[in-house]
Design brief:
Arc Repressor Mutant, subunit A, 3-stranded antiparallel β-sheet, 11% strand, 157 residues, mainly alpha, globular, 3 strands
C-alpha cells in the first residue's frame, strides 16, 4: 500500500507540474501574466463578477485589481460595465474573443479528458471527485498558514 501511495503522490506532483507548464504556455499565448490568466479563468467560470470579488479570489489589493483590469481591457480580454442592480458597482465580463481564445487552448484538453473519464465507472469517478475536492480543501486550508510565514528576502550582491 505504501508504494501505491508514493506512486499516487508522484503522479499528483507530475500532474501539477504539467498543468503549471501548460498554464504558463497559455498565458504567453494570450499575452498575459499568470495572475491575469487566473482572472480570466474566474470570469469564464462565473460569467460576471465585481472587481472586489476578483480581488478577494486572487488575493490582490484594490490598486492591483484596477491595474490588472486595465491591462486585460486594453488587450481586449474583458469589459467593464455598470452593474444593472447597483449602478455604483462595476461588473467585469470576459469578451467573446477571450472566451474563444481560451476554448482554442483548453477545449482540446476538455475533449480528451472526456475520453479518459469514459473508462471509469460512476463509483470510481465519485472517488476521484471526492479525492480531488478533499485535496483542494487541504491546500485552501494551508494557504493562510503559508501566507503568514516570513518571506525570504534576497540580497543583491
Amino acid at each position: 500500500m505504501g508504494e501505491l501511495i508514493s506512486a499516487l503522490g508522484e503522479e499528483i506532483q507530475a500532474n501539477q507540474a504539467a498543468v503549471d507548464a501548460f498554464d504558463e504556455a497559455a498565458a504567453v499565448c494570450l499575452g498575459v501574466n499568470r495572475t491575469d490568466l487566473r482572472c480570466l479563468e474566474i470570469l469564464m467560470r462565473r460569467e460576471a463578477v465585481t472587481p472586489s470579488v476578483l480581488g478577494a479570489e486572487l488575493g490582490l489589493t484594490t490598486g492591483s485589481v484596477t491595474a490588472m483590469l486595465d491591462r486585460l481591457e486594453r488587450l481586449g480580454h474583458l469589459t467593464r460595465s455598470p452593474d444593472p442592480g447597483d449602478r455604483r458597482k462595476v461588473v467585469v465580463r470576459a469578451t467573446p474573443e477571450a472566451v474563444g481564445k481560451a476554448m482554442e487552448l483548453y477545449g482540446p484538453i476538455v475533449e480528451a479528458g472526456r475520453g479518459i473519464t469514459a473508462g471509469y465507472s460512476e463509483a470510481e469517478l465519485r472517488v476521484m471527485v471526492d479525492f480531488l475536492r478533499r485535496s483542494r480543501e487541504l491546500y485552501e486550508e494551508q494557504i493562510a498558514r503559508v501566507r503568514g510565514l516570513p518571506a525570504v528576502v534576497r540580497r543583491r550582491g
